[in-house]
Amino acid sequence: EEILKHKIDCIFVSGGGSIIDFVKNIFFEAKRKSKLPISFYIIPSRIGSGAEASIASIFNTKKEKIIKTNQNFLPDGIIYDLDFLCKLDKNQILLGSIDSITHCIESLCSFNKNPYLDFFSPSVINYFLRRIKVKDLISNKDYPKNILVEFCILSYNGGIAQNNAGSGICHALAHSAEKITGLPHNMCISFFILPTLNYINKTDTQIMNKFDRNLAKTLKIILKHLNKKLDFSKIEKIISEDSKLNKLIETAKDDPCWRLFGKTVNVNYLKNAIKKNYL
């Protein structure tokens, strides 16, 4: 109501995924109630969530994640400020890139999958892997702007993949782990991406054949690097005990992303895939 009093014609938001999603709702309500046209621009302060290019808005409450989708959440423009992004922590950029890659992979596992995604999602990941060198990603040097551009493109396209099909069991497991441990979303995604790939390989090998054969190898190198830099022990403790792992999976089953997975999930296969990577 205060915003409308000022008769504004443009809203900018600069922030991470949660801030962006919050302002999407402010913009939507302002545009709906105002008699004047209002434009909307997003300046991401983090890379990877794809929130800047997504029709989804996710709110974290104490009880649950509230997920809304609306075409009107899409901005009129997105601005990637490389001078700002180059100051971000490198490990956070890597975590964000894994989130984007996960969006692309899971878009092909969703029952919402379409022929466009069969072309789009593998193209996004394969292009990224061709443009970067793994040794440069995990070096101690700061990322030059030409590499940051590749991360921005990956983030943007990951948001588009999510727009088309939603997410899947990796995101469901991550959301469950977030709720139990309080760890950030991108850390939880990174923990469960390899088990998810192993599960997909066991149940539908054709999907992974669409991606560059170096995808799994690249992810393993990045995750090995991140394991040295970040503390994943809270999640490791959960999966080390069957009762806690069962609770994690039961919580994940209630997540909307679980229901987007195109096939019935074989829980025993999934549990074995999770344990195989970390126990």
Write the layout of secondary structure elements.
Elements: H1 2-5, E1 10-15, H2 17-33, E2 39-44, E3 56-60, E4 65-69, E5 77-78, H3 82-85, H4 90-107, H5 115-131, H6 134-137, H7 145-165, H8 169-181, H9 185-203, H10 205-208, H11 215-229, H12 233-239, H13 242-253, H14 256-260, H15 267-278
Parallel strand pairs: 1-2, 2-5
Antiparallel strand pairs: 3-4
Helix pairs in contact: 4-5, 4-7, 4-9, 4-11, 5-7, 8-9, 8-13, 9-11, 9-15
Account of the protein in words:
The chain has a 3-stranded parallel beta sheet with strand order 1-2-5, with helices on one face. It has helices at 2-5, 17-33, 82-85, 90-107, 115-131, 134-137, 145-165, 169-181, 185-203, 205-208, 215-229, 233-239, 242-253, 256-260, 267-278, and strands at residues 10-15, 39-44, 56-60, 65-69, 77-78. The protein is globular. The protein is mainly alpha-helical and 279 residues long. Helix 4 packs parallel to helix 7 (145-165), helix 4 (90-107) packs antiparallel against helix 11 (215-229) and helix 8 (169-181) packs across helix 13 (242-253). Helix content is 62%, strand content 9%.
